[in-house]
Write a structure and sequence with these properties.
alpha+beta; Cathepsin D, subunit A, domain 1; 6-stranded mixed sheet; 4-stranded mixed sheet; 30% strand
């Protein structure tokens, strides 16, 4: 798997008949240098990427031109709906600050993040997978990391924007931006910039 602009990624893809069982599993792969998900419903902030990557398999090449993010995991995730399953890169998970330990008695890998632990049990063919419907997917809390680069008053303004949205029964982000832009909320000190910061941080 390669990407332009000097980036190089490796992963393995096997195209196969669609099986809904894989939609609820995430595999932990020590051969991949990037995350690739088949099931985009597990991701947030999905959008096209400027430089797609080419994924090569026994059936040829396919391109991943869309990315998203696992909640609270800083690394981007490429979306490949033709893949056999969703894959987390062993190395990238460690780089994100999670510890990975092998439990020989259970024959499972335990991924420990500040938010929770995920257990990747041994499945078919020696693959290790986590059933996402059991606990969801939220490995680490990155709010502190995401606030780096913002001044304290900017973070405070972002918190105020988030609180205002909650008081208004959490309207859609674009709707809230439009209301603020059009001055439809009386005595509202929230700005469009504080909304953008809140969207980036929280």
């Amino acid at each position: 798997m390669t990407a332009p602009e000097g980036s190089l990624y490796f992963s393995f893809l096997q195209e196969t008949e669609a099986s809904p069982i894989w939609d609820t599993y995430i595999l932990l792969d020590n051969q991949s240098t990037c995350h690739i998900f088949k099931n985009k419903s597990l991701l947030i902030n999905i959008h096209p990427v400027e430089h797609p990557i080419a994924i090569h398999s026994t059936t040829g090449a396919t391109y991943a031109n869309t990315i998203g993010y696992v909640p609270n995991l800083p690394d981007l995730v490429y979306i490949c709906e033709n893949g056999i399953a969703s894959i987390l890169s062993f190395a990238r998970v460690q780089e994100a600050g999670c510890t990975i330990e092998y439990n020989q008695k259970q024959d499972a890998f335990v991924v420990q993040g500040p938010a929770q632990s995920l257990i990747f049990n041994c499945l078919l063919l020696g693959l290790y997978g986590h059933h996402v419907s059991t606990t969801g997917l939220c490995l680490i809390n990155t709010v502190d990391a995401l606030t780096e680069g913002y001044l304290p008053w900017q973070v405070a303004a972002a918190k105020a924007a988030q609180h205002t949205m909650s008081m208004m029964s959490s309207p859609r982000l674009q709707t809230f931006k439009l209301m603020v832009w059009a001055n439809l909320v009386n005595n509202c000190l929230v700005t469009l910039k504080s909304i953008r910061v809140a969207d980036n941080v929280f």
